[in-house]
Amino acid sequence: MKATESSEYMSFQFLQLLREKNPAWRLLTAKQAPFIAAFLYQEFIAENKRQIAEHELIGSLESYLNELNQGQDEDLFLRSGHEYLDIWTDDAHGWLRKFYPTGQDEPYFDITSQAQKAIEWLLSLKQQTFIGTESRLITVFELLHQIVERSETNPELRLAELERRKAEIEQEITRVKNGQVNLLDDTQIIQAGGGHPDRRHAKPAHAGTGRRKTDGRCCGSDALSENGDGELRRACGKDPKPGSSAGRGQYAQADRRSATDGHRSPPCV
């Protein structure tokens, strides 16, 4: 993306609108974000579930609320599980999608892609902190070793250190000849490269589901989020109207990109 294009997405006006309209940002800034993110992760992402029946999800939520309220002087969460689900699926939040599968009278729920993005970002914070801390420790130890080694003026001690390293190398050669090869794990590779985890080979939680087509009724609103920022860009005057020929072509391209990068776009009819 060119710098001029990036600046449009990082302008004050656009970010202000994004903060108000984007479900992922709303989740991260919600007063009860720890509670919401923890529950949605536990039920959908950790269990790799794509749809959960209303009675099952309410039961899990009620149990979780009771667990959090236990031992408190007063209840931290006063609403019922049903009330929370209604809030999380409304247009003002958009963290869950409520729908009726074909032939079912009971509604089901699915986490929206924007809520999942927010939770995955929270997960990445812990991983980056761990990698950064251990990488810094390794760097410190290496520097200390170099300082001690290069400041040593006694030839005998320098020779003893070199002999020790020589013995270690010879032992490593022997192990390799015997087929004993010590490989770096994924975390060590990331630390050595100073980069971020390579997720190209990681199977996302929604892999295999693709763009799900459902004949049922959709009761939730995920209008802004599932196909990126098209709605926001129209609100900012960046896009042609959806009904125009240019708009249809542009949003068709956005849909193809969404299908290839793994983000789901559930139908709402």
Structural description of this entry:
The chain has 269 residues and is mainly α. The chain has a domain of 61 residues. 57% of the residues lie in helices and 4% in strands. It contains eleven helices and three strands. It has a three-stranded antiparallel β-sheet with strand order 1-3-2. Helix 4 packs across helix 7. The chain is elongated and about 80 Å long. The C terminus is likely disordered.
Quick tags:
single chain; 269 residues; mainly alpha; three-stranded antiparallel β-sheet; 11 helices; disordered C terminus
Biggest sheet, open or closed, and with what strands and sense?
A: 3 strands, antiparallel
| Helical content (DSSP H or I, runs of 4+) | 55-70%
Q: In terms of per-residue confidence, which ranges show pLDDT below 50 for 5 or more consecutive residues?
A: 196-248, 250-269
Structural class: mainly alpha
Please list the strands of the largest sheet in the order they lie side by side: 1-3-2
Order of helices and strands: HHHHEHHEEHHHHH
End-to-end separation in angstroms reads: 34 Å
Count of helices?
Answer: 11
Overall strand count: 3
* Global Rg: 26 Å
The proportion of residues in beta strands is: under 5%
Average residue-wise pLDDT:
74
Q: What best-fitting shape do the alpha-carbon axes yield? A: elongated
